[in-house]
Structures are given as C-alpha cells and as structure tokens.
Write a structure and sequence with these properties.
This protein is of the alpha+beta class. It folds into two domains: 39-146, Uridine Diphospho-n-acetylenolpyruvylglucosamine Reductase, domain 3 (2-Layer Sandwich); 147-266, Alpha-Beta Plaits. The chain has helices at 63-70, 88-93, 171-184, 225-244, 259-265, 269-279, 288-293, and strands at residues 15-19, 35-38, 45-49, 54-57, 112-116, 122-126, 157-167, 189-197, 212-222, 248-249. It has a four-stranded antiparallel β-sheet, with helices on one face. A two-stranded parallel ribbon has the order 1-2. A two-stranded antiparallel ribbon has the order 3-4. The radius of gyration is 20 Å and the shape is globular.
Length: 294
C-alpha cells in the first residue's frame, strides 16, 4: 500500500483502485491524491476442489501461477485472457471477455467473490451455480507471456488495445464502417481480431447485452501529447460507429469517450450509481473512470 498525506487544503485521500498485473492501459484504476493497493503479494491458492471442479484464489494471483496448480490435476482455467501474466482479480474486475468461443466473459465462470466494503466489513457474494461443461485441456496453449507484446522502449511509443462489441446481425456493415474510420484517420492499427460471446445476463454493465462479436483493435501509439490527441479523436469516431450499430465499447481502456458516449453505451449506469451511494455513501472508493463518468 502506498500512502501519502493530503496537501494543505485538500481532503484526506480516498481509497482507490487496485494494482495487480499492472497492465491497465487506460490509467483508469488510479486517482489523484488517492491511495493505491498493490495486490501482487496476495497470490495464494486457498483451496482446490477437483470434483466440482472449482478453485478459490487470492485476487493477486496471475493466471500462469494458477495454471501451474491446475495442470497436475488435468484441469485448466475455463475462461481467461490471451496472456497469462494478468491477475485473476484484475480480469474479474473488468469482466474480461476471455478467448474461448461460447464461454462469454470471465464473470460467467465466477462462483463467488469475497469483498471488502467501504466500511471495512467483509462479505461473501455468490449466486446459483451454472451447469458445468466438460473440462478442455488448454493450459499449454494458454500460457502466452504478455512480454511478447512489449516495444523496445515505452519512451517513444507503446502498443494499446480497444474493443467494440457488435451484435451478430450488424457484423458485416459495422466491420466495413470501422475499417473506413481506421483508414480515414490513418491509425496505426496492426491487427483486428474478432471474438464471440453469448449474451451476458449477469453483469450490471454488460458489454454483451445480446450475442455479440468482439472487435479487438491492436494498435501502435506514440506517447507525446499530439499523438494522444489523434488517438482520442479516432477512438471517439470508433465509439460513435459502435453506437450507430447499437453496440458498446470496452470500458477498462484509455478514457477517450465523451460523457455522452458513455451514457449512450451503458444506459444501465444509474443502477450502479444507486448501488455505489448505498454501499459507499462517503465515497471512499474511487478511480479516474468513476471521477470522469460516474
């Protein structure tokens, strides 16, 4: 935990977002003058039930470490990102879509969460269990290292992601329109991968409100201010395209969307605001995404 005193005239810092694998591209988990919790030390496996099968781990455990526990039992992670360096807690916190066709977001494979609320109390949040599917051996193929994506230096440029979720019925026309936006802005897009997800009936802010294809845009970005502005411009154009086709964009990346775009993409957000006011009336928990849009 990193702590600091508030500058004169400033309120006492609030609790802020948590650091796990530290691969957040948008900076949305931090907040100015706040406290930051480093979860990387919380990486223990608490129990493994090979008959269910299910596992409970601490939030700072990386997928690769979990795979090492599961592999001797001929088990594997049901849903995770392409790279194994990310933490389990981080993936759950952003409801990552994972890379396996038909599974949907990571949240679909979560049985329960143990949460620390703003008042310090600890609660167990769970729901009815989902019907299980046959375990597929995938640990060897699912152990990619995110270091493979690192540039030689981040002093000049870096590689970033954006994601857009479009219903199956709008796949073709939305793909053509997004390609047009990329060409118009001469964006340095390296590739766009397409993934699939069924409708998400669990999340309060679902990025898959119906069966969707996910367009994962991987691009190179210079780090100077003018380059960041260019990326912000074409990002907002891409979001407008997704909205025109009744789609949504993924929240955990760079905070380029306007307030109006955020509200249009996630009209369910008022329910989240009401819940936040109820469980954290003093606003102890916050981050940059919350400060900008919520």
């Amino acid at each position: 935990m990193v702590m600091s005193e508030a500058p004169p005239g400033r309120p006492i810092p609030c609790w802020t977002g948590l650091g796990g694998g530290r691969y957040s591209m948008g900076g949305q988990v931090a907040i100015r003058d706040g406290l930051h919790l480093d979860m990387r030390g919380m990486d223990r496996m608490l129990f493994l039930d090979t008959t269910t099968p299910c596992v409970r781990v601490q939030a700072g455990m990386r997928w690769r470490r979990l795979q090492a526990y599961l592999d001797p039992h001929e088990l594997s992670v049901k849903t995770m990102q392409s790279y194994a360096n990310f933490t389990v807690g981080g993936a759950v916190s952003v409801n990552a879509h994972g890379r396996y066709v038909g599974n949907g977001p990571v949240g679909n494979s979560v049985r329960a969460l143990q949460l620390v609320l703003a008042d310090g109390s600890v609660v167990e949040a769970s729901r009815a269990l989902m019907s299980g599917r046959a375990v597929v051996w995938r640990n060897y193929e699912a152990s990619l290292d995110v270091a493979q994506l690192e540039p030689r230096t981040r002093a000049i440029s870096t590689y970033v992601l954006q994601e857009y979720f479009i219903s199956v019925r709008h796949f073709v026309e939305s793909a053509w329109e997004m390609a047009r936006v990329i060409r118009k802005h001469d964006a340095q897009v390296l590739n766009v991968s397409v993934r699939h997800s069924p409708a998400d009936r669990l999340s309060m802010l679902p990025w898959a409100k119906e069966e969707v294809f996910s367009f994962v845009v991987y691009y190179k970005q210079r780090v100077h201010q003018a380059a960041q502005k260019r990326v912000a411009d074409w990002t907002r154009a891409m979001i407008d395209t997704a909205l025109r086709f009744d789609g949504r964009y993924y929240l955990p990346y760079q905070l380029h969307a306007t307030r109006a775009q955020f509200e249009a993409a996630y009209p369910e957000v008022e329910r989240l605001r009401e819940l936040k006011r109820r469980v954290d009336p003093e606003g102890k928990l916050s981050n940059e995404l919350w400060a900008k849009y919520l």
